[in-house]
Predict the 3D structure of the following.
Amino acid sequence: MSENYDDKKIDHLVRNVSEDELSDLAELFKIFGDSTRIKILYDLFDGEKNVSEICEDLEMNQSAISHQLKILKTSKLIKSRRDGKAMIYSLADDHVKVIIAMGKEHVEEG
Amino acid sequence: MSENYDDKKIDHLVRNVSEDELSDLAELFKIFGDSTRIKILYDLFDGEKNVSEICEDLEMNQSAISHQLKILKTSKLIKSRRDGKAMIYSLADDHVKVIIAMGKEHVEEG
DNA sequence: TAAACATATGATAATATATTCATATGAATG
DNA sequence: CATTCATATGAATATATTATCATATGTTTA
């Protein structure tokens, strides 16, 4: 993470958002809006992990995890690299942490 | 908005999130993950509006809007007050702006 | 190169969700 | 107090989504 977010920056960011951008935003948030996916993302806060590790951490079967990994990757929230037989996944950027942190604050204060 | 979000604060916020909290977070993000709802939220960035105004802005029928307003209110993202026959809605807190701003940044950079 | 291992994928079934339509509630007004 | 206006709500339908099962793909190793 490399940036600060203050009132001024926030206000600038939310000015003049087009209808298309709002739809894109909805699509992005939909990705976070599933507990399996958000658990995967949070699992990757520790650093990169392969599919088997994620399955163990979440106690879910491999197919379900792979399906969700694909959705996360298509959304560019995670990236992957191959290491022998294994595929290793990691967070694609720091926005994931920021977005989840904001959400957490809202949930805590509600 | 009254706070700054820097790396340190973000890291603190995302430490030790329980499974239940992650599920709550998923539920919260699910609310943002629908284009009608996010358009309503963005519409309210201008300030408070009644149901009819929101219907006009979004060019959608009243029942659909009311159903979504109820979901947004249950999630504590908006609040309402009565003014005569009209119900007037507004954003419940500033996290909404911050969350949407973060999402927008991600979408723009993708 | 056949077998074993790790992951991905397609089809299916179960569940959740959004919008519409019809109608109910609640407030203002003639 | 009957009517109109504004909003809410319930039921139904249409669509989307998730997990599971079976199987395919790709990589290593005996």
